[in-house]
Design goal:
Layout: H1 19-30, H2 36-48, E1 51-53, H3 61-72, E2 86-89, H4 94-100, E3 107-112, H5 122-134, E4 139-143, H6 146-150, H7 154-168, E5 172-176, H8 185-198, E6 202-204, H9 216-233, E7 238-240, H10 248-261, H11 279-292
Parallel strand pairs: 1-2, 2-3, 3-4, 4-5, 5-6, 6-7
Length: 304
């Protein structure tokens, strides 16, 4: 299938990244002290931004329903614990998740476009996307063609994203860069710019299948691309670090970084997400510690 060209004169020249400067900024974000009341507020915010995910070949209807229940009931014994932002499943499980979440505000996201490798024909990627949307997906998480990107075929990557965006209809599009395969921060910035200008509603670090994933250095670089685009156009684009964020402390460092680079408008699950299912339990442990003074065992929380 031939890609319709949308990219003529639309791919920006990306700035080079000062890696040392990025490291210095990250160190400052990590040194911030957060007091208990602000910490509690931040931890609840983190929970509300999590996308719970199950993307395994052994996924079953029962496992998806269990995850959806957890998305709505993270800890029923403590008042004020929010629901997560979304659950993310394969297209074949979208209808099951949609039905399980029908009385909640939790969104259903679906991976598409040959996740996680992206090594399939465009016609199949578009069919995959449309199937997920038809089944009820509110959001589509697509992967870019990293092979094309790394060989300098930037117009191809741009046009493919634009085509998938069109296939999404009203569903929001998250574009996964798979930053662990892009190697350099310069490549991360270039891929971020391509995705944003091609129409991404969110840019996302990783599939969770490749390491390193959502390092703060990578997230910082992507946030700067979002800020520069907003400064130029006034259009907000969301951000989703995914993979490797498993502790409440690291999640809070990310929120500090988002606030300082993009501002408070991005501090909601409409514009910022965490792709880290294991993060929820650590955040819950920290919130229980603030409320009771003691940590609960991991056994108190479901692993899915």
């Amino acid at each position: 299938m031939e890609i319709k060209s949308h990219s003529s004169n639309k791919i920006p020249v990306s700035p080079s990244i000062d890696k040392v400067g990025v490291e210095e900024r990250i160190a400052r974000f990590q040194s911030r002290s957060i007091k208990n009341e602000a910490k509690k507020q931040g931890l609840n915010m983190v929970l509300s931004m999590i996308d719970l995910t199950t993307l395994e070949g052994k996924d079953t209807e029962g496992k998806v329903k269990q995850m959806c229940y957890k998305a709505m009931h993270l800890h029923d014994h403590f008042e004020g614990i929010p629901q997560v932002a979304a659950v993310c499943v394969y297209p074949s499980m979208v209808a099951i998740a949609k039905n399980a979440l029908r009385n909640s505000s939790v969104k259903v996201a679906s991976v598409a476009t040959g996740f996680p490798s992206g090594q399939t024909a465009l016609a199949l990627k578009l069919k995959d996307t449309k199937l997920a949307v038809e089944q009820g997906a509110d959001e589509i998480d697509m992967v870019i063609s990293r092979g094309k990107f790394l060989t300098g075929e930037f117009a191809y990557v741009f046009d493919e994203i634009a085509a998938v965006k069109e296939a999404c209809g009203k569903a929001r599009l998250k574009v996964i860069l798979e930053t662990g395969e892009l190697v350099t921060l310069d490549n991360v910035r270039k891929a971020s710019d391509i995705a944003i200008y091609a129409g991404a509603d969110f840019i996302k670090t990783s599939t969770g299948k490749i390491q390193p994933a959502a390092t703060m250095q990578v997230t910082y670089t992507m946030l700067m691309a979002i800020r520069d685009y907003y400064d130029e156009t006034g259009i907000m684009v969301g951000m989703k670090p995914a993979g490797g964020i498993s502790t409440a402390k690291l999640a809070l460092h990310n929120l500090v970084m988002v606030k300082e680079i993009l501002g408070t408008k991005w501090l909601s699950n409409e514009w910022f997400r965490f792709g880290a299912s294991s993060l929820a339990n650590d955040v819950l442990m920290q919130l229980v510690k603030i409320e009771t003074g003691v940590y609960q065992s991991n056994d108190y929380f479901s692993i899915d």
